[in-house]
Amino acid sequence: MLPNRKLKLIDAYNRQLNYLRISITDRCNLRCVYCVPHDLIPRLPHDEILRYEEILRIARVGVDLGISKVRVTGGEPLVRKGVYEFLAHLTQINGLADVALTTNGIFLKENIEKIKSAGIRRINISLDTLDRKKYAQTTGVDKFQQVWEGIELARNSGFYPIKINVVALRGINADELTNFAKLSISYPFHIRFIEYMPIGKSRMTFEPPLLIPEIKERISSIGKLAHVKKGRYDGPAERFKFEGAQGEIGFIGALSHHFCDACNRLRLTASGQLRPCLLSDHQLDLKLPLRNGCSDKELADILLAAVRTKPSNHNLAIKDPVGVHCQMSSIGG
Ligand code: SAM
User: Fold this and answer.
1) Is 108 touching ligand 1 by the criterion CB < 6 Å?
2) Which pTM value belongs to this model?
3) I want to staple 78 with a disulfide (CB 3.0 to 4.6 A). Which of 15, 107, 120, 146 is the partner?
């Protein structure tokens, strides 16, 4: 524990960063057309990836500085060996109120009990189409049914809320947005529409981008959306609900709506880089200091320094986007 517990992760714009997103691997079992480039990114060598005990140490130091929510992501987090034991250690960190998981759902069905026993109650599942053939074309694997069964099982096993992340992709799922939105009526799922962010290398461009105003317009035929009050950890997501619906609709529009004033996040990459902003390549290294035997106080100082460099706004724009070179699959979304 740090000697001075008064230090907090408050940035130069008075945003309190209480949410740490941790990518535990850069490997993924899917090849989503918009996320993984053709000339596949070289995978990090094993010893370049933070060990679980290193990640847990960073998380503990973060919690001492005010982090109260952690999300585990990847690559695909469920492909990393030992992930369930790691999750169990993470959920036991004193002061950590919320540990959530983001997964593509491929391994959900057979591991739901292990995820639950590890103390996880909140899962986000990425699913960009409800059509089996399209799923196979977009991800490279014919596993739609397996993912859907995993989602159903998670629901029946008491996970709540189950958020389904849908990246809006013109030419891929524009015609399915209402079907996704309707799921929020018949199921207690939170459907979150996310604008595609043009970062890293991608096999496609989605021109013109499918932005939140158009998504709202497309799903408006279902009914009127009422605002839902934001929770403490919601960050940039705008929340809504259709009348009588069991679930919710969320919108995350990095392009159409610069939501940076509500950003409460720090990100840790699988290789131990701390990124104050998803949409900037600026990052601070934690791995080397950790492996050189730094103290918790020194680690805390790096976290505090990262917070001081968090920009007020990102530079991604609809036209003429400023390049972010890092792949989403290595940052974790
Ligand atoms: N493998 C896990 C999964 O599929 O949820 C976690 C990692 S994945 C990189 C996290 C999220 O980032 C997914 O929901 C994915 O659809 C989203 N994503 C990837 N590339 C994106 C992009 N360029 N713009 C917006 N979202 C993106």
Assistant:
1) no
2) 0.94
3) 107
